[in-house]
Design brief:
heterodimer; A: 233 residues; mainly alpha; MetI-like fold; 9 helices; 0% strand; elongated; B: 299 residues; alpha/beta; six-stranded mixed sheet; four-stranded antiparallel sheet; 10 helices; 10 strands; 46% helix; globular
């Protein structure tokens, strides 16, 4: 059995150019995860800064309430549902012409923004309040103090957690075939579908994700070490 | 201008005037009805038992804590008023903290340079651009309306920004290096704060405040977090500044230092100023029984 399974896979993957589909799928997966993460970090930082702002003025209070609703929705519904709503509800409702990968990037960005906002808030709270005070005491405005002093230190503190979020994001992208994106999962499934032999393709798929995730963990560790340079040298 | 006895603040040399300052955290009244005037060049030491509101009083002076009542007039402007842009005034009020609060993510030099660099660059780009536009308009004998002025200044800002940025950076860097040399820490310019001793950190925190050319420096227990052998170097630096005529308000537990450096000592108890006077009066002949009691415990 083993030999024929291998032969079937080999035939599809190499001879019938299946690897091209897989590579394209890999690019799509990474594209969605990376850009999703970037959008997520941006939105998450924004929400976190709004949430930790002093609340004696009206505007921060309103913004904070809006953020609560946003975070509530994206954490309270499954990713697949959000993808389906984005693709089948929002897009037709506004007559938008968007690539399915673009929709996936946006939905993943919005979704991870909700999670990262909580991570980032924890990070900001972990920074000694004296840091913000010292920056404010020399006359720097609130947003400059946050951006130059507090957030960089917060990011350093949450880097391992952020790496974790990226890993989660990569693995979660395996559901994007719901909206007709061909990612690695879909690519390997297509290879399996073509001759109803799934053993090798699915094991290969698992291996692909595993290698991706291990690579990213290594990268995060490296970044951590570089950022730790201002502790001691 | 607000002033005393009909004189303007300039004439009487008043720098900070506190009137009826109150501060409460929820239902807890920390400061009640504090009145005090601080003149230019004066060194005021604030002493008192812990929990008496010394630090809160100091932190109210530059609105790190928002006062719940009363006025803080700094050069005639009421800082307690929410409509006043506090950031502009904070530039002129240096603050030194018990825990130093150097920016962990910046080198020593960056710590000193950051605020002047950001604030002066912003200001000078704006001013240079405006001056250029006005000069050109004058040469042509034209007078721009408000919108044209706004637009032309905006364009001019982009043009001058790079040049001004470099000028300011050079100037600020030179000043920062001079300050570091003054405290003998030039070789630490590129070190991160975590590698320094407490005394070094606090001296750098003091010159960080000096880099802004403040009119007054507020010291919040500057030596309380230091190992005993490092207290001396920090006090020496503060003493130097005092001799140079810097106005300062110092919350401290170093009675000997307060006695030596201060022109005036405030004794605070239960959220108010229980007694104030020259160091000789207050340490030599305290009138309030609470002052006597406190001094008998610490001296």
């Amino acid at each position: 059995m083993g030999k024929t399974e291998w032969q079937l896979f080999y035939g599809k993957f190499i001879k019938a150019n299946g690897y091209r589909v897989v590579l394209r799928g890999l690019v799509a997966t990474l594209e969605i995860a990376v850009f999703g993460l970037l959008i997520g970090i941006f939105i998450g930082t924004l929400i976190a800064v709004i949430k930790v702002m002093p609340k004696y003025k009206r505007l921060p209070r309103i913004l904070s309430a809006v953020c609560d609703v946003y975070v509530g929705f994206f954490r309270g519904t499954p990713m697949v549902v959000q993808l389906l709503i984005g693709w089948f509800v929002i897009l037709p409702a506004f007559h938008l012409q968007l690539d399915s990968v673009a929709v996936a990037v946006i939905v993943f960005g919005l979704n991870s923004g909700a999670y990262i906002s909580e991570i980032m808030r924890g990070g900001i709270n972990s920074v000694d309040p004296g840091q913000l005070e010292a920056a404010r005491a020399v006359g720097l405005p609130y947003h400059t103090s946050m951006l130059r002093v507090v957030v960089p230190q917060a990011v350093k503190n949450i880097l391992p957690t952020l790496g974790n979020e990226f890993i989660t994001l990569i693995k979660e992208t395996s559901v994007v075939s719901f909206i007709a994106v061909v990612d690695v999962t879909k690519a390997f499934r297509q290879i399996g579908d073509s001759n109803y032999s799934y053993i090798i393709p699915y094991l290969m798929l698992a291996l692909t994700y595993l290698i991706l995730v291990i690579g990213i963990s290594r990268l995060v560790k490296l970044m951590e070490r570089r950022l730790a340079k201002n502790e001691r040298h | 201008m607000n002033g005393i006895n009909g004189k303007t603040t300039e004439e009487t040399n008043v720098l900070i005037e506190v009137r009826g300052l109150c501060k409460s955290f929820g239902s807890l009244n920390v400061l009640e009805n504090i009145d005090i005037t601080i003149r230019k060049g004066e060194k005021v030491a604030v002493i008192g038992p812990s929990g008496s509101g010394k630090s809160t009083f100091l932190r109210c002076l530059n609105c790190m804590e928002d006062p719940t009542g009363g006025e803080i007039l700094f050069e005639g402007e009421n800082l307690a008023d929410r409509k006043v842009d506090i950031n502009i005034h904070r530039e002129h009020m240096g603050m030194v903290f018990q825990q130093f609060n150097l920016f962990h993510n910046k080198t020593v030099l960056q710590n000193i340079m950051m605020a002047p660099l950001i604030l002066q660059t912003k200001r000078e780009i704006r001013e240079t651009a405006r001056a250029q536009v006005e000069k050109r308009a004058e040469a042509k004998g034209k007078k721009h309306n408000r919108f044209a002025m706004w637009w032309l200044c905006g364009v001019e800002r982009i043009k001058v920004s790079k040049r001004v940025k470099e000028q300011v950076r050079e100037r600020v860097k030179e000043k920062a290096l001079n300050l570091l040399e003054r405290i003998g820490l030039s070789e630490k310019a590129d070190a991160y704060p975590a590698t320094l001793s407490g005394g070094q950190k606090q001296r750098i925190a003091i010159v960080r405040a000096l880099a802004m050319n403040p009119k007054v420096i507020l010291f919040d227990e500057p030596t309380s977090a230091l190992d005993p052998e490092m207290v001396g170097e920090v006090l020496d630096l503060i003493r130097q500044l005092a001799e140079e005529g810097m106005t300062m308000v110092i919350v401290t537990h170093e009675m000997g230092f307060a006695r030596e450096v201060a022109d005036r000592v405030l004794f605070m108890a239960d959220g108010g100023i229980a007694e104030e006077g020259t160091p000789e009066e207050l340490f030599g002949n305290p009138k309030n029984p609470r002052t006597k009691d406190f001094l008998s415990k610490v001296l």
